[in-house]
Amino acid sequence: MASTDSAADTAPVQEGRIRWRRFAATALTAGALSAGMVFLTAQGVLAAQFYISGIPFTVTADKLTGTGFEQFAAIDEMAPGSPNAGDTGGQVVVIVSAIHRAELINLCQSISMGGINMKITAGTAPGRPVKARNLVVDSDDITGNASFDNIDIGQDASTLDKVPGVRGNLGVFGQQADTVEITNLRQHNYATTAAAFTLPNLRMRFSSTGC
Hints:
The protein has two helices and ten strands, in the order H-E-H-E-E-E-E-E-E-E-E-E. The chain has helices at about 5-10, 25; strands at about 15-20, 55-75, 90-105, 105-110, 115-120, 130-150, 150-155, 175-195, 195-200, 205. The longest helix is centred in the first third of the chain and has 6 residues, at about 5-10.
């Protein structure tokens, strides 16, 4: 439901556990997908268009809080001839989650490299969270316990305005909120970009276990 300004002022906080694997299938309006990569126009988010590797990675956090939240479906595209394309045609349908200003506590990211994981942790010290500005994440599965303030569900993705310059294609299902909080966050991602990313207590290593 697309809220008016007055409705948004009185909208209650909505809470629940989110699992968005099926979100992309219902979020895409017929004819709304372009054959190529979706181009984000956020100033300072993407300096140039890029192809995804097609290798997914896992991100977890004890808690994510953000102001200015948008979400819509899109298509990410691999480089032509990528060995990771498989039978996908080199395209992956993703949920684009954008946050204007985000903080994450106890962030972990891991990438499987065939029997070993490249693992990154940050934001592990009390009072020193990971911080990001204009954070944009492309996922095909997200889980956690979420709450939103003043959420608009069903808004056309081309009209989203909570994250400066970030919007989806015309006719695509979108949603946005003033704030978002997710605990026990877990994401299966294909790409992450940010205008600024601060990672206190950063540690990178190889590990037998992932996040």
